[in-house]
Each structure stands twice: as C-alpha cells, then as structure tokens.
Records
---
Amino acid sequence: MTDVAVVGAGLAGSLLACFLGRRGHEVTVYERRSDPRAGRAERGRSINLALSERGLDALRRVGLDGDVMAAALPMRGRMIHPIDGHLDFQPYSVDGRRAINSISRGALNNALLDAAAATPGVRLVFEHRLVGLDPLVFETPQGKVEAAADVVLGADGAGSAVRGQLLGYGMLDESLDFLDHGYKELTIPPLGNDFALDPGALHIWPRGTSMMIALPNPDRSFTCTLFWPNGGTASFASLSSPAAIERHFSVHYPDVLPLMPNLVDDYQHNPVGKLGTVRCGPWQVDGRLALIGDAAHAIVPFYGQGANCAFEDCVELDRCLAETGDEWADALPLFEARRRENVEAIAQMALANFVEMRDKVASPLFQLGKKVEHA
Ligand code: FAD
C-alpha cells in the first residue's frame, strides 16, 4: 500500500483515484476548485464532450459506463452544413450503427467524483491549489498547508502546476504549441420542446479559416463551438457590435442564425478559449512522481480524444502497476514508455483533423470517398 497524492480532481484525477483505491492504495486527491457536485460548473471549458470507445472502456472497468451512457446522446455521423445547399449526413460506420457519444462534462466529472469518494482508501480534498512540490504545499481558503505522500501524480490539466514546478527544478522539458485559432461556445436552445437540429449527429459548419461544430445536450439544447483566429480582420475581435455579429452569422451561418436567439449575448460574454498542444518529458521522475492526462499531453480538441486519451492513461497505469506488483519505480517508467508513442500519434491526428473538419468534409472529392472517421 502506497500513500499517493493525486493533484487535480478533473476527469483523469478522479478516475485515477478509483483505479488506485481499488488496488489498495491510500489516495488523497487535491483539487483547487470547490466541490463541483455542490454548485454550478465552471465555464470556459467545453460543456459537453464526445466520448468514444477508448474512454468507455475505462469507465466500464470501474463500473461507471451504465450510468454515464444512460444520459449520453449517440451521434452516428457528422452532419455537414454548407452555406447554401443541402445538409449532408456522413455516417461514422458503413452500417451506420457505430456512434460517438455526446455527454455532459460536468455530469461525467461528478459521476467520477462520486465513484472516487465511494472507493475505500480514497479521500477528496477541495479548495487546495498546489503551489509547491517539495514539500507539497497547497493554498487553501485558510492559508497554506503542507502535505506528504510517497508518490505524487499530477492530473492537473493543460496548465499543470505540477509540470510547472518540475520545469522550475529543471527536471523536465516542455514545448507548448498554441494554435492561432481560439474557441467560443454558443447555444442553440430547444425549439419548442424539441431539438432544433438532428440530435443523432455531430453538426459541422466547415468554413475554411473558421469552423463551427454543435453537439446535442440532454436538455435538448445544442452547445456550439466556434473556432476562429484570435486576431486579424476575420477573427473573434473583428465583430465588435451586435449588428456585426448578426451580419456575420447571416452571411456565414445562415441556417443556424434563426436558431440562436441568445447569439449576441453568448458572443459578447462567453470567453475565447485557447487551443494548443503540450509536449513534455520525462513524464515521470524517479518512480515517485508522474504526470497524467492533459498535464502530460494536452492536445487540440478536433479529434474529440483528449479526455478519452486521459482515461486510457489511467487504464495503462493501472495495468503497469498490476504487471509490476505495484512497484512504482518500475510501473511509472513502463507507463511512459507505453503511452508516449500513442499520445504523440493522437496529437498529430488531432491537428490534421482540424484541416479536414473545417475544409475537406465539405469538398465533393471527400464525399465521394465517404471517409468514416470520428468527429
Ligand atoms: P482537466 O479536465 O483540465 O482537469 C484538471 C483538474 O485539475 C481540474 O479539476 C483543475 O481544477 C485541477 N487543477 C488545476 N490546477 C490545479 C492545482 N494547482 N492544484 C489542484 N488542482 C488543480 N476530449 C474528448 O475526449 N472529447 C471531446 O469531445 C473533447 N472536447 C473538447 C473541447 C474543447 C473546447 C476542449 C478545450 C477540450 C476538449 N476535450 C475533449 C479535451 C478534454 O477536455 C481534456 O483532455 C480533459 O479534460 C483532460 O482531463 P484532465 O483531467 O487531464 O484535465
């Protein structure tokens, strides 16, 4: 039994705690936010996620797939919305049966937190922001507190403080590649009591330098994500008045404008999020400290695989611990060796899929081939 500190109770941290608790370790999860199960979800990250088989496999292993899938909306293909012309549905599989699933990020995180809290040996501690690594120091509403652990696992997301600390100690190299594009979330509310668009598809408006997608939510709304350059004449900043916003949408997204009664308010008040790829190494130090999920390898969201990939990390670390008899000094290097190549592959595919989604899915040549890929 090892005393493990997991930093971050997001998707990776809370799932990881379930796996480690089941292996008999004493796990304390430190999260900077207050308990999200008690309040409103934090804005600024996507409201919903596409969960695919990779992520589902991990949830199945901790018995959570049933609960999560009960509220999921299967999307069996992508629906392309050209500026003029007809909608084009492109199924994800030849038989039209395979799907990726739209799920609420908040509900998924809450289900994972409930499962972690119910796992013997797991303790969740909120309002603890990691600010020091050696020793472990957390900022809390009551001031700074110190903690001790045999093993520290950084599951604290793309802007990881654990990674930042390792960088400060010169124990890690990193490269951060930000895209010129950012993203903003917009909403299509239910129309009457029903979905305003087909809820069985992931909707895409490919527009070359910009692109919008929409995923359905259980309350029959859709969350749209508009991807657009951060600066320049055609960018988020270029639409500075309500009239300019509506004019832009009437020209570039004419079919969806009548479905977005809150467009101007959403546009003016929702933040523009950054998108980028984090590469760093090593992911582990001396078998006592490791990064996992976005903290180790954040990717751009165009393949809908960041969370799925973080879940796969948890499965692989659990497997490495099982194979090494829970010898962390062997398990953590093995974990890194097995995951690194796969993660780099998905990072590159996610970047390539941006070009495909914003451009190629609308081209006649592409439609002849009818590729069957996710997102
Ligand atoms: P996070 O979910 O970011 O969790 C990190 C946790 O650490 C948070 O709870 C945070 O509060 C906490 N934390 C941070 N700093 C500290 C600190 N100093 N001390 C303590 N706690 C701390 N992935 C998919 O699989 N499918 C999708 O469809 C998809 N869509 C996306 C759309 C967008 C617009 C974006 C931006 C991402 C999308 N992703 C998607 C990627 C997915 O969101 C991430 O890969 C996933 O959230 C990574 O999980 P994580 O637990 O590693 O990090």
---
Amino acid sequence: MAEGGIPQPPGWPILGNLFEINPSQAIKSLFRLRDNYGPICKLVIVGITRISVTNHELFDELCDEHRFVKSVSGPVGQMRNGANDGLVTAHPNEENWGVAHRTLLPAFGELHVQDMFDEMYDIASQLILKWARQGSEKPINVIEDATRFTLDSIALSAMGARFNSFYSEDTHPFVTHMLRFLGESNLRANRPAFATKFMWSRERQYWDDIKYLRTFSKQLLRERRQNPTERTDILNAMVNGRDPKTGEKMNEESIIDNMITFLVAGHETTAGAIGFLFYHLLKDPEVWRQVQEEVDQVIGNRRITVEDLSKLRYINSCARETLRLYPTAPVIFFKPIDRVHPTVIGQGRYTIMPRQSVMAVLPAIHKDPEVWGDDVDDFRPDRMSDGKFESLPKNAWKPFGNGSRSCIGRAFAWNEIILITALAAQSFNLKFKDENYELEIDNIVTLRPKNFFMHAVPRPHLD
Ligand code: HEM
C-alpha cells in the first residue's frame, strides 16, 4: 500500500510506472490496473504522479464541485497548445472561459439547437443520399461517414461554413490536421516531456498542425466579419454577443480558440458515438427491428422534423446505453479545491494531495457492477428507458462530463445522433460487411470503432 492509502504498482528507477500505460491503448491499461489494484490507483511516471479512479463511489465524490474542480491535464492539457483558454482547455475560473461560457450558453440551449435543425438535416440527407447512390454492394466505412456528417454539421450549423465532405473522396484537410493534433496531444500526455523535446520532426508537424487549425479558423472569422449575416449561429453569438454578467465581448483570440474548440470537440466524440450505436444496431437484430418499428410508427415515410426526435424514446434509450458502454470522451480530470490541505475521499481511506490531478476513467465507472449489475458489458437499451434512466444513482451516467464544466454541445450532439439513426432506419436495412466482425476500439483521445464496415440496402418503400 502506497502513501495516501492509494495502491501503486512497483516501478523502475527514474522511469517509475512508465510501462504500465500503453499510450495507444490507454483505456485498456487503466482497466488492467483496476483489475490488479482496485478502484483507485497511483502511478508515478518520471516523477509525475497520476491517480486514476474507476468506480462510481469515488467518482461521485469527485463530482462534488464544493471539493473538486476540473483539472486541465492529460491530453486536454496538451490540447491547450492549440486552443489556449478555449472552453474545453481553460483552467477553472479563467476569465475568458467565464465570458465565453456565459455568452454562449443560450446559443447552445435547446431552442437555438432546434433552430439549427434544418442545416443539420441538410447534411444528414447528404449522407443518406450518398449511401443510396453508391448501392448496397459497396461497403461503407461507418466512422468515416459519421465523421463527415458531424464535422460538416457543426461547421455549417455553428459557423455557416460548408466543408462539403460528402462531395469529395478525400478527407477535408482540417480533419487530417486535427486528428494528427489530437493523436500527438495524446502521445505527448503519455510520454515524459524530455522525450518529446528530442522528437524534432514530430514536434515540427505538431506545431504546423496547430498553425493550420488557427489559420483556418481565423480565415472563417475574417469571412464572417467581411460578410455579416443575420444568422442565429454560434459564430454570430461570439462576434456580436455580450457576456450577460460583465457586458464584455469575446476578444479576437478567444473567438479563434473557441472556433477550434467547437470544430474539434464538436465532431469526433459524436461521430464515435454514432459508430458504436450503429455497431450495436447491426449486432442485435431485435434492437434494430425495434428501432425501425419505432421510426415507422412515429414518422413513417415523411420528412423527419425536430419535434419527432424527442418522440423516438427507444432510439433515445439506445443512444444512452451506447454512451454508457463507450463514453467517447473517456477520461476527465479533477483536482481538489483545497490547495493547502490534503483532501480525503473513500470514507477516510484515500488522501489526495493539494494540486494533485485525479483521472476519472468513465468507461470503467460506467461499468461498475454495484450500479449496473453483473451484465455490465451487455448492450441493453431497456436499462436506459424513461423512468429507469431518471432513477439511476447520481453521477452514475456521465458521458457529458460534470457540473459547470460539462458539455455545452450536449443537446446538439443528441439531435445529431437521434436524427442520423432515425434517417438510416427509415431508409435502409443495414448489415455488416463482415458478419464475423469483432469490435475493435481506436483510442486516440476519443473512442471510435475501428475497421467497421457495413452495407446499406434501401428499404422497399424507397425503391
Ligand atoms: C465538454 C463529452 C459533443 C463541445 C465536454 C466534456 C465531456 C464531453 C466529457 C467535459 C470535458 C472535461 O471535463 O474535460 C461529449 C460527448 C459528445 C460531445 C460524449 C458527443 C456524444 C459535443 C459537441 C460540442 C461539444 C457536439 C460542440 C458543439 C464541448 C465544449 C466543452 C465540452 C465546448 C467544454 C465545456 C466547458 O468546459 O465549458 N464534452 N461532448 N461537445 N464539450 Fe462536449
């Protein structure tokens, strides 16, 4: 038992526990540590201490905003290199965070998100059209198309920018630069800083990628300033809105930081969620049958409206269960508010030192058998049905993060997930390209299914 009551695996001189985490399979490594050392574990890697929490009881304590705040650590800490004090990467109480948060909260609210529905629908129908045109013989790379959908959707709905990803075979350069930036941020977070310093060509690429993301966003902003519109989108909220508390406007750098933030945070996670949901719809024919039956009953053959989305209760349960099993932003970091005295959790058992970061491992917390029972690994939408969902223990299901630092784009993401599922069910019968496909998980910063291909066969009523 190590200092503070927190178990720590034996380590190597100087490097400490460096080899306990495989950077390309970090979540798997954290599950292994949980199995070997229990729900809280300490690693010391080249002198830097990391604590991971993997059960609901301890996580519930971390979510108490009187005792803990967000810590900008791990991959998110590295992403600050590109997005500075944008919403995701801001330290607690940074001034620009407060101004941006208060200015943008209404713009991301349920009502405004409903206003964005027509443009979201526009992009979603491009995806459906693509699948219909290419025919049922050609395999669909689900995650690539989901990424095209979510990227084009956030760029158009939030900023009036058309990336036109469905009109080109190649991925938009923004996505290439962004994925490399995210991947390298993850690797940097998992290797000692001195090692990074010697990786000259990777470093050059990393900073070039950041430069591209910033230049691209700056250009979008310039175009908007040169061509003002009456649109009620996020970019206009940033350019014209004022903080209701201070009356301040967001400054130029903060707008660019947040444009990058929305384009980055606003599509990877949702695309991953769509990918995992589709995987389970294909995997379980009975679930797929119920999804199609619900769409046929609630909507039939007509155009889907924004009001329909909340009526699709079974699909909503499937989406909740998907994000339980695969919270696509899988780790969030906390640190104690008390910067002088140690903070004790776990009924006096574990001591967290001031300024110490604690990593909450959501995929493990979402599979705590104390909350979910013995079948934690099974995809069971019925456990997320209305009524049961609301009765879950506090903080048992947290794919969108915690408290004041939780996801501002939740309503937007939810509409995307439900809409694309409903449209696919209305239009196609889906089947795996390879019936023996075993789910593989890509874990760069977010979680995504890997090598997942399917066929979409148009439903008879569309012939
Ligand atoms: C924050 C998850 C979609 C924008 C977060 C956090 C999580 C999360 C866990 C907290 C991060 C932390 O504590 O470090 C997700 C998931 C999504 C999703 C699972 C999709 C299924 C979106 C979308 C947008 C967005 C579509 C933008 C339109 C943000 C922003 C924050 C955030 C700006 C930072 C909020 C703040 O700290 O003020 N998200 N997100 N997210 N998300 Fe999302």
